[in-house]
C-alpha cells in the first residue's frame, strides 16, 4: 500500500513539474490531455486568462456506441479537438501530457491532432 502511495505521489510531482515549466516558458495555450479508467478528455487552456478555450471528451454523444478509452478513441479525440481549435482560430499550442510517457493513447492523440491542423 505504501509503494502505491509513493507511485501516486511521484506521478503528481511529475505532472506539477511539467505544468509549471509549461506555464513559465511560453505564452501559447496548453493542450492538456487527461485519461481516466473510462474516458479520455482534452482541453486547450489559456493560462494568462485562466480560461478553457476549447474542450473535447469521449464522454460526448458523438463517441456513443464505440470504445471510449482505446487508441482509436484517442485518434478520434485528437481529430475532434483539432477541428474545434481550427474553428476558434487556434493553431499553435503546447502539449501537456501531465508527466505521462509519449506512447500509446497519448501518441495517437497527438498525431491525430497534428494531422487535424494543430502545431506543437
Automatic annotation (TrEMBL):
Belongs to the universal ribosomal protein uL18 family. NCBIfam families: L18_bact. GO terms for biological process: translation. InterPro entries: Ribosomal_L18, Ribosomal_uL18_bac-type, Ribosomal_uL18_bac/plant/anim. This is Large ribosomal subunit protein uL18. The keyword Ribosomal protein applies. Part of the 50S ribosomal subunit; part of the 5S rRNA/L5/L18/L25 subcomplex. Contacts the 5S and 23S rRNAs. Keywords: Ribonucleoprotein, Ribosomal protein, RNA-binding, rRNA-binding. GO terms for cellular component: cytosolic large ribosomal subunit.
